[in-house]
Amino acid sequence: MRLAGPLRIVALIITVGLTWILVTILLGGPGGGFPRIHQLFASPENSVTAGSSTEPGAIFQLDWLTEPRTRKYKCGLPQPCPEEHLAFRMVSGAANVIGPKICLEDKMLMSSVKDNVGRGLNIALVNGVSGELLEARAFDMWAGDVNDLLKFIRPLHEGTLVFVASYDDPATKMNEETRKLFTELGSRNAKELAFRDSWVFVGAKGVQNKSPFEQHVKNSKHTNKYEGWPEALEMEGCIPRRSVAS
Asked: What whole-number distance in Å separates Cα of residue 85 and Cα of residue 122?
């Protein structure tokens, strides 16, 4: 019982000491943590400027406040297209699992999300002057009717842009006329397109030369990325608008 008094005094001293330390920290006294944060925001020599930190080991990085994220241009292109050009990006289907995508001027023309893609050839027709979508359809080249595709691409008007992305199998139902029509649109690879090949292509009605916008990968068990299918293809670029007079 005689120790009760001294123990109470010791407990009181400890309590007072801990309270003083806590108050010192909260009010920014010596050794406190808040001045570090304040200096980082307010002190010119310690503040973080756009894209860099002038203080090695700084606790807080403020780049996300002071510098915009790396800008992506239309359809995710790393650079903007010149004036009077249309920005595009397209991806073929991956095996028979992930559908293709066709983007033009930051507008998704065809994709699984839009629910307008399917097995075979996915084709978007675009006005070459205005860049407006005319029509987008998918044609089953494994079990579909090739005449549906022929009716779609035979009557194209001069200057119409044709975006094509394969998915699963683009060629089983292809006949000589189909290959000839795509060749006339500027394709180099339509004549040799085969079962389960990957293919992306941008052509135009009335084109004078072969299109620079085409990629093709053969289906080969020795090089396929997926079992039974080659890798998906991705292509992007800038297409000059057609003039009204052309």
From this structure: 23
Integer CA distances (angstroms), 203 to 29, 88, 117, 181, in order? 71, 13, 19, 11
Euclidean distance between CA atoms 98 and 198, whole angstroms = 13
Q: Cα–chain-centroid distance for residue 85?
A: 19
Q: What is the pLDDT of residues 74-120, one digit of tens each?
A: 999 999 999 999 999 999 999 999 999 999 999 999 999 999 999 99
Amino acid identity of residue 213, one-letter, is F
Contact criterion met (CB below 8 Å) for 165 and 91? yes
**38 Cβ contact partners less than 8 Å away, ≥ 6 residues apart:** 28
Provide the residue count of the chain.
246
Torsion of CA 80, 82, 85, 88, to 10 degrees: -20
Global pTM value: 0.71
CA distances from 191 to 46, 170, 178 (A): 64, 12, 9
